[in-house]
Write a structure and sequence with these properties.
Strand content: 25-35%
Helix content: 25-40%
Strand order of the largest sheet: 1-2-3-4-5
Distance between the termini: 20 Å
CATH class: Alpha Beta
Radius of gyration: 14 Å
Order of helices and strands: HHEEEHEE
CATH architecture: 3-Layer(aba) Sandwich
Largest sheet: 5 strands, mixed
Shape: globular
Structural class: alpha+beta
Number of strands: 5
Length: 124
C-alpha cells in the first residue's frame, strides 16, 4: 500500500495527464471517467461514485452521499469543471471526509487553464 503522500502524488499525476490530453471545457462526468481510466491502467485501486454512509446522531443512514472517486479507501477525489472552486465545494469535501472517516481529500477543477491552479488538498 502506498503512503498517503505518494498516493495523492500519483492521483494528481494521472489527473494532469487527463487535463493535458483533454484540456478544459468538458463535463465533470467526462473528466471523472477519464481519470478512472488512468487510475485503472496504472493499477491504482479506486471506486467510482463510492457510496459513503452518514452517521446521524448515532444512527447509520445507508446512503448519505456519493464521492466522485474513492482511491485506495484512503482519498476522496471530487472532480469539478467550474469557473472557480467555491467555499461550498471545500465545505463539501471536508464534510465528506468527516462523515467517511477518511483523512485526505482532493478537489480537482478541470476547468482551470492549468490543473495545478484548480487543485485543493485537504487533510483532516
Amino acid at each position: 500500500m502506498l503512503e498517503a503522500g505518494e498516493l495523492t502524488e500519483r492521483i494528481i499525476y494521472h489527473a494532469i495527464e487527463v487535463h493535458r490530453a483533454t484540456g478544459p471545457g468538458l463535463l465533470e462526468s467526462v473528466y471523472e471517467l477519464c481519470l478512472c481510466h488512468e487510475l485503472h491502467d496504472a493499477g491504482v485501486p479506486f471506486e467510482r461514485q463510492a457510496v459513503v454512509p452518514v452517521v446521524y446522531k448515532g444512527r447509520r443512514i445507508s446512503q448519505g452521499f456519493r464521492a466522485d472517486i474513492a482511491v485506495a479507501r484512503a482519498v476522496i477525489v471530487e472532480v469539478k469543471a467550474v469557473a472557480a472552486i467555491l467555499p461550498a465545494h471545500e465545505a463539501q469535501v471536508q464534510t465528506y471526509l468527516r462523515m467517511s472517516g477518511l483523512r485526505i481529500g482532493l478537489i480537482m477543477n478541470f476547468a482551470a487553464t492549468r490543473l495545478v491552479d484548480g487543485l485543493r488538498r485537504f487533510i483532516v
